[in-house]
Amino acid sequence: MKHILFTLYLIIASCTVKAQGMEEMWDSSASKKEHPNIQWFKDAKFGMFIHWGLYSKLAGTWKGKNYYGSGEWIMNQAKIPVKDYRKIAADFNPVNFNAEEWAQLAEDAGVKYMVITAKHHEGFSMFDSKVTGFDIMDATPYKKDPMKALSAAMRKRGIRFGFYYSQFQDWYEPNGGRNTWDYDESKKDYQSYYRQKAIPQLKELLTNYGPLGIVWFDTPGGMTKEQTAAFVKELRQLQPNSLFSSRVGQGMGDYKDFGDSEVPPVPIEGAWESIYTHNDSWGYIAHDMNFKSPDEIIKLLANVASKGGNLMLNVGPDGSGKIPEYSVKYLQRAGAWLKKNGAGIYASTAGFIPAQPWGVTTAKPGKLFLHVFNRPLNDTVLVPGFTNAVSNVYALDGAVKLPFIKKGEDLYINMAAVKNVRSPNTVLVVEFRGTPPAYNAGAPVTVSAAFENNTVDAVFAEVTGNAKIQSLTYSYYYGDWKHTTCVTDLQAPADSAVFMVRITDPGDYKLILEYACPQESAQQEGVLNVDDKSYLFRTLRTSEFDRKAPLLFIKHPVAIFTAATPGIYHLTVKPYQQGKELFKLKSIIAEPIK
Ligand code: H79
């Protein structure tokens, strides 16, 4: 199983590279020495990302046309010439910017670090830079350095502060990366851009704003491994304590960033971060109102923590310096939940019990935290595979003591005494003695009648033949990436996905296959075996697999299965005969019949 997990991790890493079109590789070898200042980052768990630049002023609209998706890419998407784009600065006057308000929001939200765009791909410097006239000091009527005030306001509150810096892409400079609509790519001299702008500006950022928690690089390019090493070495001298993100490139950097909006499906060791934006764009778009609710933020944060990582959630202030009202409101509400339940998040590590139908787990020495997203209908929470002696169980909010019993390695907790039935995430604390078991990815997945449905994800399959488990990357809006782990390459009857489940309650279950199926795969026959029972089905067409379009999944009910007794069952999915790939299988859902 270890081997399978390792393979999966490599697949995820390589897909990220392909999806992002960047040389984003990460040296995850155990031999790599950790940064001596990494512990604060591992403990932080929650960060705030801010995208703010001239694109914020355009707000997703150029010459009367509205753009969707990554608003900070509007210069590229609309192919706005530099001579027009530079004029936006003359009207950029963020008089509503208030560093104390932003810093207070960060504190209220409960984040432990903040990273803000000093310069994004557009090439505009949101700080006082002597290296260029295309900065907020020289090119705008504002003529102040907002980063001075913000870094000071954050330091006052004891929250780490850092800069995002686009080190390769710079669409303003003739020698910067990726502006092909104004400049001839074959004439670009990237080394001269690095020497004349990127390196001197990074030195300004590492010198003028006090100690930085993080320098967050993005989309590397134009440098060899040796050049990147020299670049890192030169900058590190200024602030050896500052962490560099993995997107500095060439396997360097102090922690791993997954792809934009990506959470790994299983725990990952070492320091890492998932980055999401609050709506569908990183930079402000006036017509993007698809904000994640407080409940969604709280569950996302717990889910990332359960895999051992940090969530850095982005907000996009507008061109006047105001953070969108829903971002303010919903981050504050997430923060209110964290005030009561933060002990289950901050300084935790990945949970040693895999995801259950009720939710996910995080851990600390002597404690397992159960993040109950779905309250069981009978109020009984089953924690399987719990080898240790349990001394105490309570709900974190209100310290409500809860009765429990141990039957072998099964821990049953009765949570009826928890009165707040509306909480998006009720955190239960299990105090135990001794060394906890290792995370067992091969444990059977629990299927219970105490939930509306039970989802058995692709990542828990054992695959045979040529079948693979892969993280697929696709997008909704422009740059709005989605990632789903699926079983792929089911082409012949020897290629199969086998799911070991433990059905805890006898009875009837509707079995539903969740999959994506392009035209060429549709209308083929497949088989679902539950031990020695066999059910035939025919695939239904959903959508083509194209990285730049949404991948649509159907929930296709294919059988009723009667579990006569509680116990272990094997669900096998495979093609009925040799053909094209059957589908991309996301999960099997078992829905108890009442
Ligand atoms: O700052 C945010 C993004 O703007 C930045 N990273 C996050 C934190 C980012 N830069 N590049 N990418 C993400 C990936 C770029 C993907 C691309 Fe495309 C695919 C560039 C061209 C094809 C997305 C889709 C952008 C244009 C079309």
Element layout with pairings:
Elements: H1 2-20, H2 39-44, E1 46-50, H3 54-58, E2 61-62, E3 65-66, H4 74-77, H5 82-85, H6 99-109, E4 113-119, H7 146-156, E5 160-165, H8 190-208, E6 214-217, H9 225-236, E7 243-244, E8 256-260, E9 272-277, H10 294-306, E10 310-315, H11 325-341, E11 349-350, E12 359-364, E13 367-372, E14 380-383, E15 390-395, E16 400-401, E17 404-407, E18 410-414, E19 426-432, E20 445-447, E21 454-457, E22 462-464, E23 468-475, E24 481-488, E25 496-503, E26 507-516, E27 525-530, E28 533-538, E29 554-563, E30 567-575, E31 584-592
Parallel strand pairs: 1-4, 1-10, 4-5, 5-6, 6-7, 8-9, 9-10, 20-25
Antiparallel strand pairs: 2-3, 11-12, 12-13, 13-19, 14-18, 15-16, 15-19, 17-18, 21-31, 22-25, 23-24, 25-30, 26-29, 26-31, 27-28, 27-30
Helix pairs in contact: 6-7, 6-11, 10-11
The structure holds ligand H79.
Ligand H79 binds next to loops.
Keywords:
single chain, 594 residues, alpha/beta, TIM Barrel, Immunoglobulin-like, Jelly Rolls, 3 domains, eight-stranded parallel β-sheet, six-stranded antiparallel β-sheet, 20% helix, disordered N terminus, binds ligand H79
Write structural notes for this entry.
Its EC number is 3.2.1.51. Belongs to the glycosyl hydrolase 29 family. Keywords: Glycosidase, Hydrolase, Signal. With 594 residues, the chain is α/β, with parallel strands linked by helices. Helices cover 20% and strands 29% of the residues. α9 (225-236) links the parallel β6 and β7. The radius of gyration is 25 Å and the shape is globular. The two termini are 35 Å apart. The relative contact order is 0.11. Residues 1-24 have low confidence and may be disordered. Bound molecules: ligand H79. Ligand H79 binds next to loops.
